[in-house]
Design brief:
The chain has 2 domains: 3-110, Enolase-like, N-terminal domain (Enolase-like, domain 1, 2-Layer Sandwich), CATH 3.30.390; 116-365, Enolase-like C-terminal domain (TIM Barrel). It is 37% helix and 14% strand. It has helices at 47-61, 70-79, 88-109, 113-116, 147-160, 183-200, 216-226, 243-252, 265-274, 289-302, 315-327, 340-345, 371-375; strands at residues 3-11, 23-30, 35-40, 124-130, 164-167, 205-209, 233-235, 257-259, 279-280, 306-307, 334-336, 352-353, 356-358. The termini are far apart. By secondary structure, the chain is α/β, with parallel strands linked by helices.
């Protein structure tokens, strides 16, 4: 069996657009006719340019190869161009293609992917969700800075069975280096923690999100301010290019530090663990794929750290996250996004029920992809999947982070 053909679909989720402006899906076919699906997480170039990178990686390092030879193909990609170092774009391309290889192998052997990477340790995976508007009274953009609306959304998610909710009221991330939060940003963060904790009590954990926007000192100040509400984690408090500084934050705050959505391969995650990160959040469509992230989980286990796969993407990456989570002993939880489009794109083959994801038994990733639906929603915009604000944060006016991708008409 050899890898033969590649097709790439850039699909755009309709309103409300949770999960990003577009998702890059890869369809890999073998010479025996088996189809494998993967997803490449957001990259630093636009989707048109990224499709060329994905094709180059496939044609240069994978075409004609046995899909079993994951490690060999990874070493080719990792070493391409005399680099042998993490590269977000190239490894992002590889990650989606690698996921597709595992889908192929599972289908060829009539086994789910988790059975091929160590076997099932977990029958179901604890799910968490970001807080999105859940009621007709939740207007945008007011929702992003209204603690009471957030508390209502959290209560609604707990009613659905979720035992962990994530929110990020501390202002936008920018193209600049880490900044000191304004006093208003700190006050609003306290308001959110207080309101959400009051709404959910001890029924759910609070996951405090940021996007790497603080200076080291700013991260320590914010962490101290929210600590009385006992968040389960403090996510990416400083920029990902200053991981050694993370140790100062981790040592200064009582909240476990989490990070990983912008990291790739064991090299960067090992550095995060050395820096005191206790919860790793790989995005499998960027971190190196299923096998490389399985290695990352082993590193985390050696550091007594836990895994919480990140998801701000489509359901194919989610399916890969679930297969990995089923096979590792140190899974904490996995992010989920529940929209009609997410569900329809994989024909509702994976679900969140009572706050947990049931691990599928079907071969490969355990999903059925609605290819026609994906192609019927092409991306026609110009922006990247996620973009940082260029303007600096304000110390006079309210800073608003609008929850990722904008709602489209």
């Amino acid at each position: 069996m050899k890898l033969a053909d590649l097709d790439i679909i850039v699909t755009s989720p309709p309103a409300p657009g949770w999960g990003g402006r577009y998702w890059i899906l890869v369809k890999v076919t073998t010479d025996t006719g088996i189809i494998g699906w993967g997803e490449c997480y957001a990259s630093s170039v636009g989707p048109d340019a990224m499709t060329h990178v994905i094709r180059d990686v496939f044609e240069r390092h994978m075409a004609g190869e046995n899909p079993e030879n994951i490690e060999l193909m990874f070493r080719r990609v990792y070493s391409s161009g005399f680099t042998q170092r993490p590269d977000l774009t190239v490894i992002g391309a590889w990650s989606g293609l690698e996921i597709a290889c595992w889908d192929i192998l599972g289908k060829d052997r009539d086994r789910p992917v988790h059975a091929l990477i160590g076997g099932r340790v977990n029958d179901r995976i604890r799910a968490y969700t970001y807080l999105y508007p859940t009621r007709k009274t939740h207007s945008l953009p007011a929702f992003w800075v209204d603690a009471q609306m957030a508390a209502e959304s959290a209560a609604d998610m707990v009613d659905k069975g979720y035992t962990a909710v994530k929110f990020d009221p501390a202002g936008p991330y920018t193209i600049r280096s880490g900044h000191m939060p304004s006093m208003r940003d700190i006050s609003r963060s306290i308001e959110f923690c207080e309101a959400i904790r009051g709404a959910v009590g001890d029924k759910a954990d609070l996951l405090f999100g940021t996007h790497g926007q603080f200076s080291t000192g700013g991260a320590i100040r914010m962490g101290a301010a929210i600590a009385p509400y006992s968040p389960l984690w403090y996510e990416e408090p400083i920029p990902p290019d200053t991981l050694r500084e993370m140790q100062k934050v981790a040592e200064a705050v009582t909240i476990p530090v989490a990070t990983g959505e912008r990291l790739t391969t064991t090299r960067e995650f090992a550095e995060a663990l050395r820096s005191g990160v206790q919860i790793l959040q790989p995005a499998l469509g960027r971190s190196g794929g299923i096998w490389e992230t399985r290695k990352i989980a082993v590193l985390a286990e050696a550091w007594n750290a836990q895994m919480a796969p990140h998801l701000y993407a489509g359901p194919i990456e989610w399916a890969a996250n679930v297969q990995l989570a089923a096979a590792i002993p140190n899974i904490l939880m996995a992010e989920t996004i529940e929209t009609d489009f997410h569900a329809a794109l994989i024909r509702d083959t994976i679900r969140v029920e009572g706050g947990y994801i049931t691990v599928p038994d079907a071969p490969g990733l355990g999903i059925e992809v609605d290819e026609e639906l994906a192609r019927a929603n092409p991306f026609t915009g110009y922006g990247l999947h996620l973009e940082a604000q260029q303007a600096p944060v304000s110390y006079h006016e309210e800073n608003v982070f609008e929850g990722g991708a904008p709602v489209k008409a």
